[in-house]
User: Fold this.
Amino acid sequence: MLLVEAWQFILAHPERFLAALGTHIALSASALAIAISIAVPIGVLLSGAQRAAQIAIAGANIGRTLPSLAVLALVMPVLGTGFVPSLFALTLLALPPILINTYTAIRQVDPDIVDAARGMGMTALEIVRKVKLPIALPVISAGVRTAAVQVVSGAVLAAYIGGGGLGDFITAGIAMMALPQLLVGAIPATLLSLGTDALFASVQRALTPAGLRAR
Amino acid sequence: MTWLLRNWDQVLVALWEHIVISVMSLSIAFAISIVVGIVAARNERVFRWSLGVSGLLYTVPTLAFLALLIPVVGLGRTNAIICMVAFSLMIMIRNVATGLREVPADVVEAAKGMGMSEGEILRRIELPLALPVIVAGLRIATVTVISVAVVAAYVNAGGLGTLIFNGISNDHAPKIWTGALTACALAVVADIGLSHLEHWLRRRAA
Assistant:
């Protein structure tokens, strides 16, 4: 019954639903894209700098334990409410898993392979681009997958600081105790999260060389 | 800071509620995971299914999970605790099962040769050897549960999230800061504490 009412709510307000879904995806995708473009280069650079790496990884490990809602809430008094503060907080949440995985993966590249590449006359940049990154890609994409799911889930909470997205229906539904409206937010958010996980799982699989795949 | 000094009793109550619902959820999840994990360590199909289902639960956004439970159990602590248990199952079942699987087969063989029963082997050999891995799972689950509990304040479960939500609706920054920073500190302290326990157990096992 509730499901039917929720479906009717969507049919009655298609533009509101699509706008919220659009905001949710835009918020998540941009946070993830920004986090990747920051964390991957830094992870690569850190793999060559022991001292800095220790500090950065310790910081990332702490960042990983921070509750998502606390991070969103902490951003609000400083940056205010809306899309940009939400984007900033979600980007912060996405950084640690990508950074940690990139750093670990690059460090684990077999030194013999790097030596061979050097012997072939590759420059440091070429070694990173043509040797280290391709080998590290499966582990990096695992970090991106963790971050992606975390960002899509976190974006539901962005509703509290005016970031929009599907969380808006949930908060409104709870405030008015309107159960159908609650589901209009909760079910698509759940599907979006499961879909994101499945999508990045297949990306991760596609980036893993056939010989290294489990199963 | 002055707000915190004038309202420290309120903060302590919220912190205590937060710890209580976290510990309750973790205890329930731990009991379930030990049983399921022991079965899963011995049976490949149970392993796959339990991790598949609990992995699915783990992927659901926190707030959506709490919201989906409202039509079923309403608002309040029960809702929050079900949600928190669901979120920790995947991590703990996985670690109990893999911890048990990593116990060297020859150690188990030797115990069998000494005439131990299967129950004795589990209690006196396998579980103690798997303990560091189990505690590693408990550590991740604890951090996750503390984080979920912050959101759970929205369904009237109490805890530090209450300060954050009150602060947001009254536009009162010190309350937000206090709630959020205390929650972060709790997560970090729990993580560091359990990580020390894990390392101590590993050293003792080695």
Remarks:
- The two ends of chain B are 46 Å apart (CA to CA).
- Chain B touches chain A at residues 56, 59-65, 67-68, 70-71, 75, 143, 146-147, 150-151, 154-155, 161, 164-165, 167-168, 173, 176-177, 179-181, 183-184, 187-188, 191 (CB under 8 Å).
- The first helix of chain B runs from residue 2 to 6.
